[in-house]
Amino acid sequence: MTNESKYRFVGTRPLRHDGVDKVTGRAQFGADFALPDMLWGRTLRSPHAHARILRMDTHRARALPGVAAVVTAADLPEVEPGPGPVNLRDLSCNVLARNKVLYHGHALAAVAATTEALAAEALELIEVEYEPLPPVLSLDDALAPGAAILHEGRAPKRYKVSGPTNVAARCEFSRGDLTRGFAEADLLLKRSFRTQTVHQGYIEPHAVLAQTGADGRSTLWCCTQGAFMVRHYCSALLGLDSAKLRVVPSEIGGGFGGKTTVYQEPVALLLSRVSGRPVKMVMSREEVFRATGPGCATRVEVKLGARRDGTLTAARASLWYEAGAFPGSPVEPGAMCIFAPYRIENLFIEGFDVCCNKPKTTAYRAPGAPQAAFAMESLLDELAQVLKLDPLELRSRNAAQKGDQLAYGPRFKEIGLTETLSKAREHPHYKAPLEAGCGRGVAVGFWFNAGMNSSATLHLGGDGGVSLVTGNPDIGGSRASLAMLCAEELGIEVERVRPVVADTDTAPYTDLTGGSRVTFATGMAVVEASRKLVAELCARAARIWDCEPAQVTFHEGRCLPTAASGLDHSPLSVAELAARMAQTGGPINAQAQLTARGPGPGFATHICDVRVDPETGRVEVLRYTAIQDAGRAIHPSYVEGQMQGGAAQGIGWALNEEYLYDENGALENAGFLDYRIPVASDLPMIDTVLVEVPNPTHPYGVRGVGETPIVAPLAAVANAVRAATGVRMTELPISPPRLLAALGLKQNGGAR
Amino acid sequence: MRRVGRLLTGLMDSPARGYEAPDSVEQAVALLSAHGPAARPLAGGSDLLVQLRAGLQKPAVIVDLKRIPELSAVVLDDEVLRIGAARSSAALREEPSYRALFPGLLEACELIGSEQIQGRASIGGNLCNASPAADTVPALLVNEARCEIAGPEGRRFVPATEFCTGPGSTVLGLGELLVALHISRPAARSADAFLRFTPRSEMDIAVVSAAARVQLGEDGRCLDARLALGAVGPTAFIAEQAGDALRGVSPDDAALERVAALAREAAAPIDDKRGSIAYRRQVAGVLAKRALRVALARAAERTRG
Ligand SMILES: Cc1cc2nc3c(=O)[nH]c(=O)nc-3n(C[C@H](O)[C@H](O)[C@H](O)COP(=O)(O)OP(=O)(O)OC[C@H]3O[C@@H](n4cnc5c(N)ncnc54)[C@H](O)[C@@H]3O)c2cc1C
Predict the structure, then answer these.
(1) pLDDT per residue over A408-430, tens digit each?
(2) Quick one: A33-133+204-253+259-291 is in which CATH superfamily?
(3) How far apart, in whole angstroms, are the C-alpha atoms of residue A126 and residue A571?
(4) Residues A276-295: pLDDT tens digits?
């Protein structure tokens, strides 16, 4: 691969920059920070899923020796919702409940004390009087006539309804003439699909250490996907001047979208301000499950019209996504993604954001897309079956191409869907024979990928090495890929680039790490900054050679005179120029900042083989292949790792993962024992095939790669189960009891 | 910035301020008697420490049993395998002759948690913790293990079938501890097997488990059959009628289906987050016949005792 490549580093597999720190334990994660005189904070959480707070008395807790601060929502300023995409008032109420608790585990007070045990003891002394309200625990509950309303008196967005509703917003996308499209079809299929609330499964619980000085300046150490995001939310919620808050991101033990908001961070700051001492808060695993944002439960109804040859003539989808306690489910991205992989002339999509008494959902890897793809790709599988078409052929016939318009407006530039489909058909996996009782399924996944704002700073050291400073916490290998882009541009060894994830006072502004955007967007900033650095190096060489900068060119890490200049100087390497910085004009640094446009959409095709135990309903994944267009794989091992990780999470989501709530809305499986993410022995080696259709807007052709791989597996697994058993599972997870019940229904001649 | 091991933190935060590590059974009994219910014996700690951290147990004194040689020893003589109650399951796995004799019991040991957990988890702890879902217990039951107990009154033996009296409770009285498990060598043409059902392949808790032991006659009929079920009642138990149904008959598919039906009937599970009553009953039948099949195949191969 590297031999034929025009690049020296891009596409190779160097050791990761963060590897040694992680395997030796030197890396510092969120809970690893401590300061002298530090207090421990703990959170009081609601024992009701839905209740009015009638009275709260913290006197006895305050009086407990060793307790230094007790805070409630009364200590937070009332904030306006604000103009941004996140409603700050809701965020404030999520951080510390005001008037009402909206889920079992909702924070409503916090204590800082000299030990964790004392803080926990103090929590028990806080008296709260509740007026319990009926809990709304599902979409069906929430949408039922006469349902209890979470946010009384709040009008839904873009949705007209008489009377109170738990629907917080509606979105709609349409094109063409749906009626005509369905009339042109030879075949109509319609089905409804459901998925349950799921956890991102990051291993590191949320942790924070806050320190506030008498001068009002604060520092916050925490594990997060975005230090600037934390700074913004904390200062907004506390009414602080953001210039007085420095946020230091720790090494991060997984996020997958789950660390794109704040929970304890503002509370720890508040406790620290009140007590005048540093305050540390570390969530238990149970708190992570009960009270942080999960991936949302959904119901998706799809109707497809197709001609006998498989051409899709029309498609309609309605999506209902649980937002949890506050508005803001990813139903809109779900609605935008559901038909994106296909060229369909006539379509109509509507999405509903529905509140219920569960924690406010937050992002989970390609937020909203896997649930939508589960519905669409399952129904396509059924269509292929009815039409007796190969399921990949059916998808190829309808696959979106360059120039096709998306339901939400833009047209595709270069995309690699067709390539992933044909690679899938050629793959030995797709042709391998299957044993009895086994089945094979395929599915396609799509994700937009994000651009947003990024910056990067380069500092050239006297040794010729470069510090590469950004503010993007590295959740998927971005340090390695950014360093490789920099090394490629500067022609220096990858090891000589030192990628640093810096704090908010040190790093130039960047949006959070999410949307698979860092290697793409921050990578663009790195390339631009590197080119500025090269220009400066050429200027320095020109100064040494006493010629015009235009007479100097840069090639493979060295400045040399251009052929046209007629000059004859021996080339100067980056290290040589670095050594002479002081004599040639002083330090050499470069910076670039941009709003990255044109992120390349990511497409994947997955193939899954399963065996089903007909007597227990247990599904075993035997073989799995993920094929994805990466645009350009900067560090292929990392890209493959992303594809394997996404597939593993998707398989878990398909087979066993779900939050189990009791009738009062208490979470029954708040831990990894009974919330079953797959363990290594549950999975086969996940085979990967990289497709590279360069994204024309990125200097190296990069597309985001981190989220696309979780979109296809839900349906790939369900389709494989269908092939193995003849039973179509329209509800996830396909856990053994659920599948056995469905198999029993089939045997007894029940529905389907 | 120092990092403190989480389990240790658990111990330190717990109200258990006392930690004793006696090196004889007599000392351990004296400590347990002196402190009464405020003392808890500690073997591998893979149950106890979890319970401490969750605040489910608040002992004042912890009596670590691992320094007592008798509790860590495993001895195999001509008649009996004697397993010290605090011996880790990983250590048991290392001796191939135990596996040759009791493959089912060793299968159960290998299913406990993970490699790391097995390095700590003892069979004694598994039994004394008295979880209805404990993996080694059904295998101990079908192998007619005898529990050697030491207490203020001296030693006594209790059959494993009577040791657990309910979820989390045992026959152990004040000051008593489990010293060892005694299991007789299997007869010729007999063997055991253990299967459990979990949605995940490891790091999971049995939804249902089944252990079987059979002895075949020269004619291929079943001379003896014992079936134990786990996680489908307040304790693991022997499904008497299911085992009896196989005695004296030739163990063909029809016979095994009859056993499966009897196992389903014997199961008395509860509905919880790990499985419904109906599902557990169904799977109890499936595991019963599958475990018996494995045991039968093994028994047919084992020509010597
Ligand atoms: C991650 C994880 C996974 C697990 N997976 C499984 C699994 O798959 N299957 C399974 O069955 N279990 C599992 N367990 C539970 C546990 O590991 C087992 O029950 C183990 O065998 C307990 O042994 P121990 O030596 O660690 O017991 P300990 O925790 O030391 O003791 C358990 C209990 O027995 C008492 N006790 C111990 N020894 C004696 C004695 N000699 N006399 C009197 N009382 C005594 C203790 O006081 C305590 O109440 C798991 C635990 C964890 C943490």
Answers:
(1) 999 999 999 999 999 999 999 99
(2) Aldehyde oxidase/xanthine dehydrogenase, a/b hammerhead (3.90.1170.50)
(3) 73
(4) 999 999 999 999 999 999 99
Q: Is the pLDDT of residue A524 over 90?
A: yes
Model pLDDT for residues A303-320, shown as the tens digit of each residue:
999 999 999 999 999 999
Distance CA B58, CA A728 (A): 49
Write down the pLDDT at residue B6.
Answer: 38
User: Contact, A162 vs A258, CB < 8 A?
Assistant: no
Task: Copy the structure tokens of residue A27.
Answer: 């890396």
- How far B185 CA lies from chain A's nearest CA (Å)? 33
Pick from A507, A38, A34: which is nearest to A247 by CA?
Answer: A507
- At A497 the three-state DSSP class reads strand
Cβ count near A608 (within 10 Å): 32
CA of B7 to the centre of ligand 1 (A): 15
Whole-complex ipTM? 0.91
The reported pLDDT for the residue numbered B274 is 87
Task: Output the CA torsion sign for A737, A739, A745, A747.
Answer: negative
Cα torsion A140, A146, A148, A150: sign: positive
CB of A21 within 8 Å of any CB in chain B?
A: no
Whether the pLDDT of residue B10 is over 50: the answer is no
pLDDT at B13 over 60: no
Residues 6 or more apart whose Cβ sits within 8 Å of residue A382? A189, A191, A728
DSSP B217-254: -TTS-EEEEEEEEESSSSS-EE-HHHHHTTTTS---HH
Tell me if residue A495 is catalytic. Answer: no
Residue-level pLDDT at A748: 65
Six-digit token pair at A151? 């946010």
Predicted model pTM: 0.96
Cis peptide before A709 (omega within 30 of 0): no
Q: What local confidence, expressed as pLDDT, does residue B1 receive? A: 30
Helices (H), B54-102: 69-72, 89-93, 96-101
CA B57 to ligand 1: nearest atom: 49
**Closest CA of chain A from B4, distance in Å:** 9
Q: What is the pLDDT of residues A651-694, one digit of tens each?
A: 999 999 999 999 999 999 999 999 999 999 999 999 999 999 99
Domain range annotation of chain A: 19-26+451-596, 33-133+204-253+259-291, 298-449+600-747
Class of domain A19-26+451-596: alpha beta
| Residue A117 touches partner B, C-beta closer than 8 Å | yes
Question: Would A19-26+451-596 and A298-449+600-747 be classified into the same CATH topology?
Answer: yes
Mean pLDDT of B82-100: 94
The Cα A328–Cα A326 span in angstroms is 6
Backbone angles phi, psi at A251, to 5 degrees: -60, 150
Task: Kindly determine whether residue B200 and residue A682, on different chains, have CB atoms separated by under 8 Å.
Answer: yes
Ligand 1 first shell, C-beta below 6 A: B 40-48, 50, 65, 85-86, 111-113, 117, 120-122, 124-126, 128-129, 134-135, 172, 177-178
pLDDT for residue A745:
75
Cα A619 to Cα A204, A378, B25, B277: the distances in Å are 29, 17, 48, 20
CATH architecture of A298-449+600-747: 2-Layer Sandwich (3.30)
Contact B132, B230 (CB under 8 A): yes
Between A391-398 and A369-387, two packed helices, what is the crossing angle to 10 degrees?
A: 110
CA–CA separation, A746 and A218 (whole Å): 63
Hunting for tokens 């009339």 — which residue is that?
A183
Cα distance between residue A377 and residue A11, in whole Å: 32
| Position A393 pLDDT exceeds 50 | yes
Q: Tens digits of per-residue pLDDT, A562-588?
A: 999 999 999 999 999 999 999 999 999
